[in-house]
Amino acid sequence: MKQRILGANGPSIGAVGLGCMSFSDVYGVADDDESIATVHRALDLGMNHLDTSDMYGAGHSEEVVGRAIKGRRDDVFLATKFLTRYGPNANRSNWMSPDSGRWQDTSPEWVPQACEASLTRLGVDVIDLYYMHRKLPEVEIEDTVGAMAKLVEAGKVRHLGLSEVSPATLRRAHAVHPIAAVQVEYSLFSRDPEDELLDTCRDLGVALVAYSPYGRGLLTGTVTRDSLREGGDFRSVAAPRYTAENIDRNLKLVDTVRAVADEVGCTPAQVALAWVLAQGDDILPIPGTRRAKYVEENTAATEVKLTARQIATLIDGIPRDAVAGDRYGEAGMRAVNL
């Protein structure tokens, strides 16, 4: 696995990481043993950047990651996030539902408690990169980051990150404590970071960690109308780009990716990932999977070199305004770029 530097002064880590949200039952029922085997294969290939959150499966993803890295902590660059709290009678088996008994909290009082809970679930003494998962309008970013900075001082956390924040929020946060990374959705289907956020990151020396580099699976070329109906995949009911009125138009756009893949001699997924990697050495994509074969495919994508003509073909074939539907529903879109 080729390496990239996390921000201006961070460590050298795998150019492509492993997103671990699917270790919970978000894309259908997950198998813990399969997820653990996937982590082991990733580490064997040098894919050492593991990304999870206290939200995913109400902490279950963190617990699975913790089991997977036991005895291999030195091989891992470990990232997790905080945001979600659950009441004593919460329905953790239905953790994505608004009726699950959960709420969001980024108050400075909650930050150290959230961190301790994540450390326990992960079975580690320190988190390499600790993110605020979303900014809440009612909590000043200076207050949250100030509490996060105390975790660095206490040796609980090594680097701080933010997720889906505006450029202005990033600058305010960075003035309190250096921010190592901003995590945001970025792919051929989601180009919003190019408006201003990417430039702000580069001005401050902050890495951009790109989640959903496959456009939530659409850019892999494997998604069909029928494939989402199996196994309780949340995208079939909660992702606007997968609705009946949008999916056919979006799948048609993938033809461009498929054509470039045929020319290069790789998979559409590898082309989509290679495109993200080509946008700058300060960008670290974290495609999610719980299957070892896709870890191998993602690792091989770091060797794919797209020509300037092929990159232009992708951009021309998938204009920013051509993708149908927002990347989140109405409530989700209100929570980004704050």
TrEMBL record:
The signal peptide here is none
UniProt-listed Pfam families: Aldo_ket_red
Q: Where is the NADP-dependent oxidoreductase domain?
A: 16-314
InterPro entries linked to this entry: Aldo-Keto_reductase, NAD(P)_OxRdtase_dom_sf, NADP_OxRdtase_dom
Q: Keyword Oxidoreductase on this protein?
A: yes
Named from the GO MF annotations, one term is: oxidoreductase activity
What are the UniProt keywords, alphabetically?
Answer: Oxidoreductase
Family matches, as SUPFAM superfamilies: NAD(P)-linked oxidoreductase
Q: Name one GO cellular component term.
A: cytoplasm
Does Lipid metabolism count among this protein's keywords? no
PANTHER family tied to this protein = AFLATOXIN B1 ALDEHYDE REDUCTASE, ALDO-KETO REDUCTASE YAKC [NADP(+)]
**Protein name stated in the entry:** Oxidoreductase
Protein species of origin: Virgisporangium aurantiacum
